[in-house]
């Protein structure tokens, strides 16, 4: 700029829109900041269940659903205005701040760089309200509508949907990394809040995926949550750190947490710090912890530290950073010293019991044997008690090319319908020749719905009750065995038995019963958000009923057909089952991208949802019955000794090793009834095998 141009410039106040965008850039730097603000708002609302849904790392879609207290209708016009808040009235209130949000900048900042839709319902309200915001103001959902909030269906709580983040700030959007990196950051954030928030359940996943990346129930302990996130080895070396109130000179200060011992090993250190339940960073405290660990660990070694500090609100200043990521507090040196001293005490205790892996040297004549000091003695672990497998280790198949491992399991079994139904031990009138049009419909290639399908939050109390029943029925030991097992192999495809190893024990498992509960739980988790398997051409229901119903059940068959046609809208909305008014089956739900059910079992599925087996008049019984029928439909078929080929067994082995058992390990909650029914049965262990070998 030359001197003349500078002289002509005048000082003027910025346009409010520019001011708001500048302020939004300070508060919301990336999707992670938006998720943190919205998570904290949900926690302020008293939520016990929070679900996070992302697309492209949150840049295209970011949705937070909670079951909190909701928002008053009269407050909706002010919700996204800057400095509009219910938590602060005068500046002095900052000294007693006990909530996460207080400035009224989070939603306002997000609305200036994204399109925000909010659906909320308070307890006792007849219906929910939906509002759309642009640049901090209410806006119409469509040009013909009013900008006022519109009534809609909804459950108690709030659903905030943020679309096209930074759509009007292209420079900021271009500076962000790939969507996968943004998703990793958000995932790390949700995991930290899930570990700290003991009474809140958290779920985080990508749009279009059936499996949640994070699903941590409030019923899990802090150590169990850390085990799910960071692995069993991390929990194995954790010690409890507790500084009781009154142990320091700082009034009303106390701290608790979990810290790793000197035996802990990982690629990088983990430091999680909460102060008054607020996730923050403290460079000074981290430096003090680094210096303390450096006295006991070699250079470059890692550690795990989770700390929760509690102090008087007036001792904490949370208004020092736009995103409230950094806080200042009084008596920081006293607090750092107390934490360091406690850390030293714990590390000294574990350091005395520390063991080292020693390399055996080649003995020589001149070597003099030195006496072993008492402190160097370690307990010997015999070979028959060594755990020889780790479920996380790389398998040989993983070393093959990606094209060899990219197979999708599709059931293109060419056996007749009568053979497939006979394998299920169901009494059905056999067909001499399957109907050509029916067989053609079953052999067509399936097509999934695209990932752009709108995600529908679960709003039915009956589904919530069924989900809670699954959590309450969890058998901890059996679930732990499945989550940490090592798949061994297929034992008997005719009885659907496989072998797995957990620690030093060898177990036989009935993979059919486990698969039934896996797909039932997928139905509950992804309710009303299933993919779709299209029938091409559509299959007439009458021909399917002809296979599954006997001649004596013609009346029941016709009643079932009329019922399914009459309830086709509900079946399509909740289960992606498409039935035309003419009585043709157009689509079935897809519960997994990697596995297709045996479509020759469609007649059995339709018979399982007939009115004599499912109570269609009761909401909960109806939904539960249909989901159980779907789970049964997805269970791998029982192979028959007479009609099983080598290819069938090979396919089943790959299905178990590459899909089913990894899914059992990742997401299955094993109910108590399976353990009591000996679905998971220990047949032997290494000590027992060594005993047998010694006798031989």
Taken together, the total number of domains comes to: 4
Overall CATH class of the largest domain: Alpha Beta
Termini separation comes to: 94 Å
For the largest beta-sheet, the strand count, sense and barrel status come to:
9 strands, mixed
Percent of residues in β-strands: 15-25%
Write down the CATH topology of the largest domain: Heat Shock Protein 90
Give Rg in angstroms.
Answer: 30 Å
- What is the share of helical residues? 25-40%
Subcellular location: Nucleus
Keywords: DNA damage, DNA repair, Nucleus
GO cellular component, one term: MutLalpha complex
Main location: nucleus
What does the model show?
It comes from Schizosaccharomyces cryophilus (strain OY26 / ATCC MYA-4695 / CBS 11777 / NBRC 106824 / NRRL Y48691) (Fission yeast). The protein is α+β, with helices and mostly antiparallel strands and 696 residues long. It has 4 domains: 16-216, Heat Shock Protein 90 (2-Layer Sandwich); 222-351, Ribosomal Protein S5, domain 2 (2-Layer Sandwich), CATH 3.30.230; 384-411 and 474-526 and 636-696, no CATH class; 414-452 and 527-590 and 599-630, no CATH class. The strands form 5 sheets. Strands 1, 2, 3, 4, 5, 6, 7, 8 and 9 form a 9-stranded mixed sheet that branches. Strand 4 and strand 5 form a beta hairpin. Helix 3 packs parallel to helix 6, helix 9 (283-294) runs parallel beside helix 10 and helix 17 crosses helix 20. The radius of gyration is 30 Å and the shape is globular. Mean pLDDT is 79; it is low at 357-377, 401-406 and 412-452.
């Amino acid at each position: 700029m030359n001197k003349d141009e500078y002289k002509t410039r005048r000082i003027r106040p910025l346009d409010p829109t520019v001011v708001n965008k500048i302020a939004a850039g300070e508060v919301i730097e990336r999707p992670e900041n938006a998720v943190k603000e919205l998570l904290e708002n949900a926690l302020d609302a008293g939520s016990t269940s929070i679900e996070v849904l992302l697309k492209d790392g949150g840049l295209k879609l970011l949705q937070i659903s909670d079951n909190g207290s909701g928002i008053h209708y009269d407050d909706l016009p002010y919700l996204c205005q800057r400095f509009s808040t219910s938590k602060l009235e005068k500046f002095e209130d900052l000294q007693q701040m006990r909530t996460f949000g207080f400035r009224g900048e989070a939603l306002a900042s997000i609305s200036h760089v994204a399109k925000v839709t909010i659906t909320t319902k308070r307890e006792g309200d007849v219906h929910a309200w939906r509002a759309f915001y642009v640049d901090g103001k209410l806006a119409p959902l469509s040009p013909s509508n009013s900008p006022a909030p519109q009534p809609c269906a909804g459950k108690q709580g709030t659903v905030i949907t943020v679309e096209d983040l930074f759509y009007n700030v292209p420079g900021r959007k271009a500076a962000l990394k790939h969507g996968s990196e943004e998703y990793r950051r958000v995932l790390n954030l949700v995991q930290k809040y899930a570990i700290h928030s003991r009474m809140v359940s958290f779920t985080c996943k990508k749009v279009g995926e059936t499996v949640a990346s994070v699903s941590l129930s409030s019923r899990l302990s802090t150590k169990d949550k850390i085990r799910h996130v960071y692995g069993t080895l991390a929990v194995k070396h954790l010690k409890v750190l507790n500084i009781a109130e009154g142990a320091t000179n700082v009034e009303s200060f106390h701290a608790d947490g979990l810290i790793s011992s000197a035996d802990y090993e990982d690629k990088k250190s983990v430091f999680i710090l909460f102060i008054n339940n607020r996730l923050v960073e403290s460079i000074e405290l981290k430096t003090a912890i680094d210096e303390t660990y450096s006295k006991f660990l070699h250079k470059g070694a890692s550690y795990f530290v989770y700390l929760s500090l509690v102090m008087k609100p007036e001792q904490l200043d949370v208004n020092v950073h736009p995103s409230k990521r950094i806080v200042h507090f009084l008596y920081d040196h006293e607090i750092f010293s107390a934490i360091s001293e406690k850390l030293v005490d714990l590390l000294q205790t574990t350091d005395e019991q520390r063991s080292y892996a020693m390399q055996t040297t080649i003995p020589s004549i001149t070597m003099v044997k030195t006496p072993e000091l008492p402190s160097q003695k370690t307990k010997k672990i015999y070979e028959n008690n060594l755990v020889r497998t780790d479920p996380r280790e790389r398998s040989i198949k993983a070393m093959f090319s990606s094209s060899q491992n990219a197979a999708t399991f599709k059931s293109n079994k060419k056996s007749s319908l009568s053979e497939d139904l006979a394998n299920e031990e169901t009494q059905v009138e056999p067909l001499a020749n399957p109907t050509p049009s029916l067989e053609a419909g079953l052999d067509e290639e399936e097509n999934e719905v695209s990932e752009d399908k709108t995600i529908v939050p679960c709003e039915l109390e009956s589904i919530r009750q069924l989900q809670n029943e699954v959590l309450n029925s969890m058998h901890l030991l059996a679930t732990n065995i499945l989550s940490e097992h090592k798949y061994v192999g297929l034992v008997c495809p005719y009885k659907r038995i496989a072998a797995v190893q957990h620690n030093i024990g060898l177990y036989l498992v009935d993979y059919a019963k486990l698969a039934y509960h896996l797909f039932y739980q997928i139905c509950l988790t992804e309710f009303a958000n299933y993919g779709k398997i299209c029938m091409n051409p559509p299959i007439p229901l009458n021909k399917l009923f002809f296979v599954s119903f006997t001649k004596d059940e013609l009346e029941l068959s016709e009643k079932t057909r009329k019922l399914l046609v009459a309830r086709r809208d509900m079946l399509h909305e909740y289960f992606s089952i498409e039935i035309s008014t003419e009585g043709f089956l157009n689509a079935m739900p897809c519960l997994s991208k990697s596995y297709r059910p045996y479509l020759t079992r469609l007649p059995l599925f339709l018979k399982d949802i007939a009115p004599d087996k499912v109570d269609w008049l009761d909401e909960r019984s109806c939904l539960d019955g249909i989901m159980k029928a779907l789970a049964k439909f997805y269970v791998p078929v029982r192979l028959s000794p007479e009609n099983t080929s080598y290819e069938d067994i090979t396919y089943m082995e790959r299905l178990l090793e590459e899909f089913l058992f990894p899914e059992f390990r990742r997401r299955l909650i094993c109910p108590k009834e399976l353990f009591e029914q000996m679905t998971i049965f220990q047949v032997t262990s290494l000590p027992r095998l060594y005993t047998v070998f010694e006798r031989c």
